[in-house]
Predict the 3D structure of the following.
Amino acid sequence: MKKVLVVLFTMISAVGVKAQSMSLYNPIEVVMGTLAEIGPGGELEADWGVINTTQAPISVKARREMVVEVPGSSNYFCWGVCYDSTTTVGLVPQTIPPGDTNFTFYAHYRPLGNTGVTGIKYVFYLANNSFDNVSQTVAFCVESDCTIGVEEQRQSGGMSWNGANPFEGLGAIHYQLPAGKNKGQLKVINLAGQTIKEINLNNVRGQVFFDSHDFSSGMYLFQLSDEQGWMATHKLMVK
């Protein structure tokens, strides 16, 4: 069996902990839409501000990192200027005055008739020190429900499936550990009781992405647990 493709991107604050000189103003985690709403050749968009938290001007560059991508879709971003879909690192840094906010960032996603979830991480970093950075991961969801759940689920914990059932293509488990817990584990178990994948979770909530092509056909049990013995399960059929 092929190795399961698993990409975890956090849905709490997704902002890089290394940042010393920047923060983000109203970053966006999820953008949802349908093909009918978007229209042929249309796109989804996310934008936010980048704040200079220092007392001196800073020169900031931007780049994008693909987390998971729907085949056939396209995306690009703008940071001062707009780049085409082949550009992953912005060529032109933006100078942000002390204490000011730059609002020239825009993330664009074109489904091009394809449904599913694409996750993209956008990183902003000093032009002379890439270790001083801040980032945000966005889930672009086309005809897929990327919400985590209601407030009750946030308190008691749980998980939900975002994808086709029977599972085909890309899908994600949205998980929420019980209130006060930020460490857990997600296991994938087959009908023979064999654990085929164990994923350690270090955030109170988030998403774990899977590709159906990495599974054999059949029924699987997804088991979410924390260190104190709390547990939730979800069954899923893979085509």
